[in-house]
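Field: COMPLEX_INPUT
Field: COMPONENT_COUNT = four
Field: RESIDUE_TOTAL = 1120
Field: MODE = joint
Values follow.
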Amino acid sequence: MNNQTLILIQCQDAVGLVASVAHIIAKHHLNIVTMREFVDEENHKFFVRVVCSGVPAATALLQQDLEENLPARAQVSINPAREKKLVILVTKEHHCLADILVRHFFKTLNASIKAVVGNYDTLQEFTEKFDIPYHCVSHENKSKEEFEQELADTIMPYQPDYIVLAKFMRILSPAFVAKFENKLINIHHSFLPAFIGANPYRQAYKRGVKIIGATAHYVTNDLDEGPIIVQRTKSINHSYDVPNLVTAGKEIEKAVLSHAIHLLTEDRVMLQGNKTIVFE
Amino acid sequence: MNNQTLILIQCQDAVGLVASVAHIIAKHHLNIVTMREFVDEENHKFFVRVVCSGVPAATALLQQDLEENLPARAQVSINPAREKKLVILVTKEHHCLADILVRHFFKTLNASIKAVVGNYDTLQEFTEKFDIPYHCVSHENKSKEEFEQELADTIMPYQPDYIVLAKFMRILSPAFVAKFENKLINIHHSFLPAFIGANPYRQAYKRGVKIIGATAHYVTNDLDEGPIIVQRTKSINHSYDVPNLVTAGKEIEKAVLSHAIHLLTEDRVMLQGNKTIVFE
Amino acid sequence: MNNQTLILIQCQDAVGLVASVAHIIAKHHLNIVTMREFVDEENHKFFVRVVCSGVPAATALLQQDLEENLPARAQVSINPAREKKLVILVTKEHHCLADILVRHFFKTLNASIKAVVGNYDTLQEFTEKFDIPYHCVSHENKSKEEFEQELADTIMPYQPDYIVLAKFMRILSPAFVAKFENKLINIHHSFLPAFIGANPYRQAYKRGVKIIGATAHYVTNDLDEGPIIVQRTKSINHSYDVPNLVTAGKEIEKAVLSHAIHLLTEDRVMLQGNKTIVFE
Amino acid sequence: MNNQTLILIQCQDAVGLVASVAHIIAKHHLNIVTMREFVDEENHKFFVRVVCSGVPAATALLQQDLEENLPARAQVSINPAREKKLVILVTKEHHCLADILVRHFFKTLNASIKAVVGNYDTLQEFTEKFDIPYHCVSHENKSKEEFEQELADTIMPYQPDYIVLAKFMRILSPAFVAKFENKLINIHHSFLPAFIGANPYRQAYKRGVKIIGATAHYVTNDLDEGPIIVQRTKSINHSYDVPNLVTAGKEIEKAVLSHAIHLLTEDRVMLQGNKTIVFE
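Field: COMPLEX_OUTPUT
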């Protein structure tokens, strides 16, 4: 992968964009390996993800060439950090964390886990088996503000690209969310927008649904309303009580979150308003 | 199937119910082929569906024996109508209706379609190809009351076991629903409880979900809140605009509705409050 | 769609192909709406499907420009027939045929069904409901050669783009297949390459599989060995006997075949050796 | 669960078996919580799995009562070992092992892992993080006989209920298989019976399939031909090269194997010839 170049562009739509982009790339002696584009016709936006073989002689020049020849205010990103830095936030449930730590240990995560932060120490022993620092930041006997300040202070030094809420069961304030804009990734244990909020499996049980699901999404100020990255579902039937639903749900949750992390670490997700463009 | 007996029981849970039921069935010289039971522990309810080989010498006696030996107010149904009578309600969309009519024509529906009733005449020509009576009951220039009275008057003479709303796009009043209690089956074009109400695909598009679905359910007074029978989903991505979602959704809708009809016509669905027990 | 241009290219891979293609398209004043490409690295082949807005002033010139500037022997196709002509071959089973005829009737098939040809008359009445000519070409009391000659003579006048074997249960000779190269599409009632040949559901039952499937594929000389277009599967369990498997399988078969037809009629399938590139 | 009784019965089919079983259970003052039965009509066999609340005063007497009142040679098992003992066999791939060890560590496996045995030491460090003994039994410089003898000698002292081949890449001899009859569980990295044998992903790539899968099955003398317990599939497309297929496949493999172990540890799998009855 070291002699490849990844280019991400997001701009106003216009005539001839693919040709412009391809032309500039060729001018810089790069060869397009794969190109995925999308035009959001409602918002007149153009998105493209290009993988090229070869490395530009002058990345800054390529960037400048692209910016000057694309619509004003185009966002051009050339070779964003290859290995993203992650901080994982947890409470007591292990399934998502364990899945991520195992992938990290065997080097299939394509990201570097810098730390795990929990509001309990439940998962400390397990985390430390994998030589990852674990910080216990309890929310007890603290105001929300104090708790979140301590949380931010713990996270900040690691300068993470993404903060993964791997079943972190505290609702974060708008102030905290603003501090880590577009970096907070959550796994919600339902098929959003169904069963927003607490106890989704209890809600699902009461409603008598025949399918449950999980959703990985960016965190925004509105609870469970951020841009969705990945969703999956599983058929169930009347014989599932709440504990059965929770058990079945955990399998989906960990698969969905790990897949979302995979997409993010490969820079396959682009944001447009409250939606995502995902180039799988 | 003619020398088989189907027994459905629903009652308060109690110790020894399976043994009692099996004992009484054996006493009447029937042999159990399959037996599916479920205990709703929250509501202390017992449900069982038994298929026996053989026909009871005296069905009334078997019924009496079961009722006397099961908890008070047990609902016992022996050989409910083998071939259900259906009336189908439609508006303009053909996909669900066509799927049902084709199954009916080739005798794989296990039910008898008595009539199709539409509030437009759009689907009349198609319906009549299959020699099924089509009634056009327009809602135009009528009060809701008048329209529903005419609808009921059209349906009533057919004495249907189920009235299938195969993309019938009018909201029915509580009075109408009460008239056909537990007989109205609807296909809703979303994965309920997500996107209740109008334009679910538009809602799904705006929310940026990565999965769409459909739900077949009993109709109750609360819009899209009745007991769910079948649900299915399909993965989508950012490239689906609203018309694409509608097209993809129709495939799910017709499959879900046909499967729900199949379950109902084989008496595999039992109601408990706002939920269903489905013995697949 | 009338002011769009579809361009399909298949050629040896080379440096700068996307740029070349995009440049030529821009030169002819077309704007790229979507572009999907694929490089088969094993065979050094490049495939691209481009949808442009606008119509070229001179299609022949655009074709020439592309051919001259792409690697030798590039296959360039501009605006292949928008509405494909289909002939459907059947035996006695109705489910795939009915699904296709209904879509055709309601104009959602994006293709024109010219005729249905069956080796029995079982499906004649149904076909004729939709005003499609039905030809009964019996195989009885004929040599394979005679039968296939009559079949070919019946099909040929319609000049179909594709001949869809919608549960046509006769094995076709290499000579017949050669006559309609890359035009014969079959639905096989198993998840190929499992259960090649006759009675796949019986084979699946005996093997005790927990999933069944169906495969839509091009027909080549080797039985059930042609390039695969679409496959789907469904979970089953020990309680399915052979008739249950057949019934469940039919639902998959019709969905898979209809989806394959949809892909073909939108020119989303390209052939490379014994495999397909499918730009969904 | 401690005051529940699990009863598994497998016998020739006969009239009145459910009634007999239910009657005897009631006589011993147990209450049926769930009862799942299956009649294999082809082989005239009856299978039932009953969960009762309560514990029999005399288990031996209950066993005797059942055996005496059921067809000759009925296999009756009352409360088989609640927590199965497992030995895991591995080679170099970690994904299935890790999934199992994590579940074990967090006590969601419902089984006790006694040891991991590998023919390389690749997974030793990881295994030992979880305080599970790891035995490296190399196959190098040994005859197959010697290797398998050493393997058996390593496994035997643990008296496992099941030996799980979690991507163990050596083919076992009939002699070895005979030694552990009905105890060897394998995960095969394809959707059996497609792609039996080596390099299934390479085979799948060459065939151009649109779906891949994995199969958990009992090991018998015929390679990849044993009774199937669980299968799952995943859609893929032309863009997957062999390494992509392997990566995608691993996610299915670990999910399938863990689900099979779950079913086995809850005594939900019964064997009938080369097939399984699975009471999910």
